[in-house]
């Protein structure tokens, strides 16, 4: 009786196409012939992994890389790469990687796994430990090798939300280009260092930034330009200060922005209250109201708090404070 590997290629393709994603990965580890056959298959011949979330984590203290996957049935899978033991663990199977570099192995595995991803992810997430240039950890260069892999293959990950937890700006810029700007809606940046500052210029030049609809950042952003953020329907960020003229620019933009929801700015200082009063008139308990374009019920509310927090949001006409002035919509 012929072995399964001796079956016609079309039969093998049909078997793999209707198999479970994990079953194909397991089959790939059976022998070199299966591995080569599966690796050479066109992406369309592989089953959909149906992942909704992929998270890639580097852990400096334990010298580990973790790939976490969540699918449509809320089934959780993890691949763990240990630098201490130089091993890979998946589905309760541990493989000794001998002299192989665990980052290189992890990158090759990720490239393979992404071939199975047909549907859009809800979230693609990265979390990177803090490595100095002197660290000799085997996983220190994970962000750089991720960038190189995607630069060479040209593959983009179709995801709605993109999240990075980082200590350094280069870690963000290493992986932000991996997200497909055609599907990206939400960029979410978490700071793992309370004092970290990020230059926004380079990030704002990316197609991912330009196409996203929502932006949130825990980093303190430097060189923030209101023209770079006014296209977001929702954003929350930290920056040093903002001028009255910039706030007026945002106000004029938002009152004509039919899908605008909320913008929140956490500032270190703001000393242009007099200039704002000259531009918008007196406030009602630090709040101003402006009618939205082509809407009878939607009102743009602007709040400037004493702790220098500034918020733009949309309220209904019935939510306006009693006695407050609602400014009519003006084009300029």
From TrEMBL:
<dbReference type="Pfam" id="PF01827">
    <property type="entry name" value="FTH"/>
</dbReference>
<feature type="domain" description="F-box">
    <location>
        <begin position="1"/>
        <end position="54"/>
    </location>
</feature>
<dbReference type="InterPro" id="IPR002900">
    <property type="entry name" value="DUF38/FTH_CAE_spp"/>
</dbReference>
<dbReference type="GO" id="GO:0045087">
    <property type="term" value="P:innate immune response"/>
</dbReference>
<dbReference type="Pfam" id="PF00646">
    <property type="entry name" value="F-box"/>
</dbReference>
<dbReference type="InterPro" id="IPR040161">
    <property type="entry name" value="FB224"/>
</dbReference>
<dbReference type="InterPro" id="IPR001810">
    <property type="entry name" value="F-box_dom"/>
</dbReference>
<protein>
    <recommendedName>
        <fullName>F-box domain-containing protein</fullName>
    </recommendedName>
</protein>
């Amino acid at each position: 009786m012929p072995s399964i590997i001796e079956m016609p290629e079309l039969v093998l393709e049909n078997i793999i196409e209707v198999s479970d994603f994990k079953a194909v990965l397991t089959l790939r580890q059976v022998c070199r012939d299966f591995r080569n056959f599966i690796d050479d298959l066109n992406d369309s011949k592989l089953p959909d992994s149906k992942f909704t979330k992929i998270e890639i984590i580097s852990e400096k203290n334990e010298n580990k890389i973790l790939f976490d996957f969540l699918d449509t049935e809320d089934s959780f899978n993890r691949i763990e790469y240990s630098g201490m033991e130089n091993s890979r663990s998946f589905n309760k199977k541990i493989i000794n990687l001998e002299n192989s570099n665990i980052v290189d192995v992890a990158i090759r595995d990720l490239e393979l796994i992404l071939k199975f991803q047909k549907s859009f992810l809800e979230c693609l997430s990265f979390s990177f430990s803090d490595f100095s240039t002197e660290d000799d950890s085997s996983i220190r260069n994970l962000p750089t090798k991720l960038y190189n892999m995607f630069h060479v293959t040209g593959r983009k990950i179709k995801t709605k939300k993109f999240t990075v937890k980082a200590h350094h700006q280069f870690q963000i810029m290493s992986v932000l280009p991996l997200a497909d700007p055609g599907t990206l809606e939400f960029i979410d940046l978490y700071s793992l260092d309370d004092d970290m500052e990020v230059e926004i210029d380079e990030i704002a030049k990316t197609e991912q930034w330009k196409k996203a609809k929502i932006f949130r950042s825990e980093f303190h952003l430097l060189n923030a330009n209101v023209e770079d953020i006014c296209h977001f329907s929702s954003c929350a960020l930290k920056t040093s200060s903002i001028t009255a003229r910039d706030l007026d620019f945002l106000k004029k933009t938002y009152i004509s922005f039919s899908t605008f929801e909320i913008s929140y700015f956490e500032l270190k200082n703001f000393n242009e209250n007099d200039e704002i009063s000259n531009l918008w008139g007196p406030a009602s308990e630090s709040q101003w109201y402006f009618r939205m374009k082509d809407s009878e019920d939607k009102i743009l509310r602007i709040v400037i708090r004493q702790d220098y927090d500034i918020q733009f949001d949309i309220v209904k006409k019935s939510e306006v404070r009693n006695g407050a002035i609602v400014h009519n919509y003006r084009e300029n």
